[in-house]
Every structure is written in C-alpha cells, then in structure tokens.
Specification:
VPS10-sortilin, 1 helix, 2 domains, mainly beta, repeat, Methylamine Dehydrogenase, Chain H, Sialidase_sf, Sortilin N-terminal domain-containing protein, Sortilin_N
Length: about 400
C-alpha cells in the first residue's frame, strides 16, 4: 500500500469466503496526542497487489471491519469519527455491493462514534457494537457522556436496541471493547473503562504520569459477561489494584479484548499490560516475558491452534506458540520503530536525533563509507541514548553540535 495516501491503519479484514479479498480501514481509532487521521476504506481483490479506494474518507478513522462470512460484498464498518471536532460521518456503515455504495445504518450523534463491532458467527444478521463519546477537547482528555454503551441488531442493521441490563452507569463509562465466543455465540464479553468513582487514593499514591493523586480514583478496567446474547450482563473480573490501574488514567487508548475462538472461558485483555484469563474472567494473570513490550493494542488467536497468538503493542509485534507463556519478537525480521520527530546536527559526519515511542531519545551517526539507498546515506546501525524523553523535540545549536536542547514530560 505504498501509494495509498495514509500512514495510519485502523483495521484490516480478510474475507473468509475468498482470501484474495482484503479490506483496510485507514485512520487510527485509538485516541492519543499523536493519533493520525486516515482517508477512508481501501479494498484489494488480488491479495494486496493492487488497491482501490472505496469511500468513507470523511470519517477520518476506522475502528473495525466485519465481512460477511459467505457474501464478501456485504461489509460492515465501525467508525469512531473525528477526534477533535463534531462530524456526522461516524457510526456503523454497511455496503451490500462491495463498497460501491455505503449506508449509515446506525448513528447517534455527531460526537458519538462506533468502536468495536462483532458479528454472531451463526446468525449473520446479528451484530453488536460499542458506542462512545469520542470527542477530545484541547484542554482535557476524552470524557464519558450520554449515548455510550453497547447496542444490538438482529436484522442486519435496520433496527438497533441498547443492551444495558447488568452493565455499570453508562454515562460514566469510557471506551468499551467487545468480543463474542465463536464456539458459543451466546457468550460475549465487554471490557469496560469504568469512570465511575471508586476508592480514595492512598497517601503518596501517584498516577500513571507520576502525579500525586487527588480526589477519588476511577473504578478502572472491568470485564462483564453475558451468557444470553446480551440480554443480561454480570461483572466477572476481580476488583483489585491490577484491574484498577490496567489502563492507567487513559484506558481509552486501549480498550481491546479477544476471546479464544475454541474456548469461551479463555480471554485476553489489553492495556498497559497484557493479561489472560482461563476461567471466564474471574481471575487474570499478567503475561510477563523478556522482550514483551507494554501498551497493547491488538491480538489475534489462531482458530486452528489457540496456543498460536500474535500480539501488537507499542514495541512492535510479538508471537507466542504456547498460549502466552513465552514470546518471540519480530525485531530481527521487521525493524519497527516509531519516531515522533527527526533532527540533525552539523557534525562531520553528522548525527541524526529522534524521539522513539516509549524509549526516549536516540542519536545515530551517519558514517562515511556506508552504502547509499536511493541516493540517501544510511545511518550507522549503532544508536546511543541522547537527552530527551518520549515524544520530545530536539534542537541542536548549528554552530556547536555539542549543545542540544530537548524536552521531556513536564519540562
């Protein structure tokens, strides 16, 4: 997709009935300060060799794509919409002609967008969607509001009803992730970022940014389960410090969960850490392993072998072949690093500076003698830490490369 005018992908879906058909939705659904907007939906009919733009450009973000398992011309798309401004191009969209035309089949308001979307694997007219007040003011983080919650349709999107029985106060909940058990579609889980007030902070307790906590803490991450297709829900996750701080103070950055397609009692939740439950959400264990990075945003479980799991996080891609006990990273195969910005100095040979996601600032030397690629000298593969933090900016004195200015959190 080198020629597609977007560097941000929200979701990818492959048609079960024809794996040559691939849909890609552009625009990052996860809200954060560096979120990048997209240009709509793209489709490939030849396993990714060529791509065609298929509309929905005004949404700017795509959260989820669901392709009908038997008819690849029927596609549902959940769009959170714009991050900073009101817009009507958000909600659930449906096409029945392979993307030539789209109908907006579910919409609440210009501020409430659709995040997660799942289809019943047996009754394909039944879908569930999570809606959230996705607006961020420049002076504050996203806030819960009326209209948030989970909705269900049983007729392919013609009519929707909100399902609330057993869920917390939805005017005080944030982003909700949902998933359905493929082996038993009566079972669904909701991963709720609960902003209702919980306990008072302990003396000296600090938040995820290192600031002293003031006032009551929010309840934090919770997992709810239904065994009757959403008619009733019950909280199954424990109330403990791990769940309370699972998303820090910004659970809306994560909000993803996956249910094992072969066992409705095995599920994974994603936040600052990755955690797994094998008892239907009653207990969760963090998956620790050397090389497994933090800040988790996606997970795939192989339907033929549930021990084969792929996880995507702020550090790249990790794979497990034993259900999350041990992990391998892709760093030696795919060198994936997110740079927020790039600067250089006037040394000979010169140095390149860049702040790296979750890893502070680094400096690399452009050494003479290294081969050129497309007319550009390659940077020496040896990098060293430089002053500055994650997401910082670096400025180098043009007359003295030994003088640099950089920033970090709070200064």
């Amino acid at each position: 997709m080198d020629d597609v005018p977007s560097i941000s992908i929200g979701d990818i879906a492959i048609a079960q009935s024809d794996p040559d058909i691939i849909w890609v939705g552009t625009g990052e659904a996860n809200i954060f300060r560096a979120s990048v907007a997209g240009t709509g939906m793209y489709k490939s009919m030849d396993a990714g060799k060529t791509w065609q733009h298929m509309g929905l450009a005004a949404t700017l973000t795509i959260g989820r794509i669901i392709i009908h398992p038997k008819n690849p011309d029927i596609v549902y798309v959940a769009s959170p919409g714009h991050e900073w401004t009101d817009n009507e191009e958000r909600g659930v969209f449906k096409t029945t002609d392979g993307g030539e035309t789209w109908d907006k089949v579910f919409y609440i308001s210009e501020r409430i967008g659709a995040y997660d979307l799942v289809m019943d694997p047996q009754e394909h007219e039944t879908l569930y969607v999570s809606m959230w007040n996705r607006i961020r003011e420049r002076w504050s983080d996203p806030q819960p509001g009326p209209g948030d919650g989970i909705f269900k349709t049983t007729d392919g999107g013609k009519k929707w009803k909100q399902i609330t029985n057993g869920l917390p106060n939805l005017e005080k909940t944030g982003r909700i992730g949902i998933d359905i058990a493929r082996n038993n579609p009566k079972v669904l889980y909701a991963f709720v970022d609960n902003h209702n007030l919980g306990r008072m902070p302990k003396e000296g307790e600090r938040d995820a940014y290192g600031r002293l906590k003031k006032g009551r803490k929010i309840v934090g991450a919770e997992v709810y389960r239904t065994d009757d297709k959403g008619e009733t829900w019950r909280k199954v996750s424990p109330s403990n410090e791990m769940m309370e701080g699972f998303g820090g103070t910004y659970g809306w950055v994560f909000g993803q969960m996956r249910v094992d397609p072969n066992d409705e009692d095995i599920l994974y939740i994603m936040g600052l850490a990755l955690a797994k439950s094998t008892d239907g959400g009653k207990t969760f264990n963090r998956l620790y392993y050397d090389g497994l990075h933090g800040d988790h945003h996606g997970l795939w479980i192989c339907p033929e072998d549930s021990d084969y799991v792929i996880n995507v996080n702020d550090g790249g891609i990790n794979t497990s072949y034993d259900g999350g006990k041990t992990w391998r990273d892709f760093h030696r195969i795919m060198n994936l690093v997110q740079f927020y910005n790039v600067e250089y100095d006037m040394e000979k040979p010169f140095n390149v500076y860049g702040s790296v996601q979750d890893h502070g600032t680094y400096r690399g030397n452009v050494a003479h003698g290294l081969p050129y690629r497309r007319g550009v000298p390659r940077v020496n593969t040896r990098w060293e830490a430089a002053p500055g933090g994650e997401g910082t900016h670096v400025a180098v004195d043009p007359t003295n490369p030994h003088i640099t200015y950089s920033s970090s959190f709070y200064g």
